[in-house]
């Protein structure tokens, strides 16, 4: 199962990169900068997924006190920090040439930065307590609460008036030409597969550390 | 020693969270006002204001180092003057968010012009509309 999952993820990521760099046309207004979309949006969705896993596993750990849930919760929190950081980074790299600024204090950007900092904090408090069990519980509690920010991040562009554009794909319709939709779909699938593989590997590593 | 380092790290994270939330709450909920809102409310001309709208097609031009265009929300319009260079992809028919002060003639003297990109993505079919772009 493991070699298959890793192989399939690597293949998906390669196809996604090929579609993003060669098959996708440039956008009529932003030109080649549209290619950043194929990392930015999949990374954001992977961050949502990692945050959901961290929340669920942490809640189960607080309830059952089974260390295996802590391994998964920790992996989820680390990956939520990683992917939300990647979302912020790619967003800034796109914002500078298209908006003209690296950063703006609008609701989407602020809530995403808060999401990143919440998971960095979640990882920090784990080592704060002298008693490792207290650290695990503190970290799990933060991971459960931090997930509340995910819907706020997602709907910030609908609820508030932001510089960041609204959703291109929603119930109101798809405002993305089909030429952009396929690379985006494949890359999203690839990043979610990568999230799954990294979650499993990180949780396994944590369990090996405890066994030793 | 470990605890001091950890406490410092937590302080940095909590401090950045506080900074982001405080910085965000001030402006985040409504990032800009529309030209209609700008005209319907009495405004202190000394205070800077951030206005967002569409760059009216045909209004974008540069005269002697000053960039001029008109922002519209479909109902009201506001003229913009900007002496600097725009670093983003400012294009007629697309959005822009302008920060500045209202001049005595009702035009906005911009301190910064930021481009607001639409959520629509289309491949190029016709030649690109003229973009006002200058190197930083």
Give an account of the 3D structure.
The complex is a heterodimer of chains A (about 210) and B (about 140). Helix content of chain A is about 75%, strand content about 0%. With about 210 residues, chain A is mostly helical. Chain A has one domain. Chain A has a two-stranded antiparallel sheet with strand order 1-2. In chain A, a hairpin with a 2-residue loop joins strand 1 and strand 2 (about 175). In chain A, helix 2 runs antiparallel to helix 3 (about 65-100). Chain A is globular. Chain B is an alpha+beta fold. Chain B has 2 domains: about 1-30; about 30-130, Nucleic acid-binding proteins (OB fold (Dihydrolipoamide Acetyltransferase, E2P)), CATH 2.40.50.140. In chain B, the strands form 2 sheets. Chain B has a 5-stranded mixed β-barrel. In chain B, strands 5-8 form a two-stranded antiparallel sheet. In chain B, strand 6 (about 95-100) and strand 7 form a beta hairpin. The N and C termini of chain B lie far apart (about 45 Å). Mean pLDDT of chain B is about 85; it is low at about 130-135. Chains A and B meet through helix 3 and helix 4 of A and helix 1, strand 5 and strand 7 of B.
Concise description?
Chain A is mostly helical and 212 residues long. Chain A has helices at 2-23, 37-64, 67-98, 107-125, 132-146, 149-159, 178-211, and strands spanning 169-170, 173-174. In chain A, a hairpin with a 2-residue loop joins strand 1 (169-170) and strand 2 (173-174).
- Main sheet strand line-up of chain B: 1-3-4-7-6
First and last CA, distance of chain B: 46 Å
How would you classify the helix and strand content of chain B by structural class? alpha+beta
Compute the CA-based radius of gyration of chain A. Answer: 18 Å
* Continuous helix count of chain B: 2
| Sheet with the most strands: spatial strand order of chain A | 1-2
The succession of helices and strands of chain A, N to C, reads HHHHHHEEH
Summarize the largest interface: chains and residue counts. Answer: A-B, 43 and 42 residues
């Amino acid at each position: 199962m493991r070699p298959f999952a890793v192989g399939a993820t690597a293949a998906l990521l390669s196809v996604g990169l090929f579609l993003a760099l060669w098959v996708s046309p440039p956008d009529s207004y932003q030109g080649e900068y549209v290619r950043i979309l194929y990392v930015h949006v999949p990374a954001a969705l992977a961050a949502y997924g990692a945050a959901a896993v961290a929340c669920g596993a942490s809640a189960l750990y607080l309830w059952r006190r089974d260390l295996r849930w802590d391994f998964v919760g920790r992996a989820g929190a680390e990956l939520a920090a990683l992917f939300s950081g990647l979302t912020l980074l790619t967003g800034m790299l796109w914002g500078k040439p298209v908006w003209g600024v690296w950063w703006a204090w609008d609701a989407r950007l602020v809530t995403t930065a808060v999401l990143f900092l919440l998971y960095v904090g979640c990882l920090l408090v784990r080592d704060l307590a002298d008693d490792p069990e207290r650290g695990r519980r503190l970290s799990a509690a933060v991971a459960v609460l931090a997930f509340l920010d995910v819907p706020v991040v997602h709907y910030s562009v609908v609820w508030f008036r932001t510089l960041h554009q609204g959703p291109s794909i929603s119930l109101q319709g798809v405002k993305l030409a089909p030429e952009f939709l396929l690379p985006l779909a494949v890359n999203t699938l690839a990043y979610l597969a990568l999230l799954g593989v990294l979650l499993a590997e990180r949780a396994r590593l944590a369990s090996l550390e405890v066994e030793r | 020693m470990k605890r001091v380092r950890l406490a410092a790290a937590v302080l940095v994270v909590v401090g950045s969270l506080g900074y982001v939330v405080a910085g965000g709450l001030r402006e985040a909920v409504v990032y800009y006002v529309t030209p209609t809102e700008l005209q319907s409310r009495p405004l202190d001309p000394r205070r800077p204001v951030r206005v967002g709208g569409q760059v009216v097609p045909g209004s974008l031009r540069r005269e002697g180092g000053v960039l001029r265009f008109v922002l519209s929300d479909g109902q009201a319009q506001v003229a913009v003057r900007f002496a600097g260079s725009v670093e983003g992809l400012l294009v007629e028919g697309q959005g822009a968010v302008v920060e500045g002060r209202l001049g005595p003639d009702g035009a906005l003297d911009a301190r910064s012009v930021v481009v607001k990109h639409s959520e629509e993505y289309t491949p190029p079919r016709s030649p690109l509309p003229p973009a006002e772009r200058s190197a930083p």
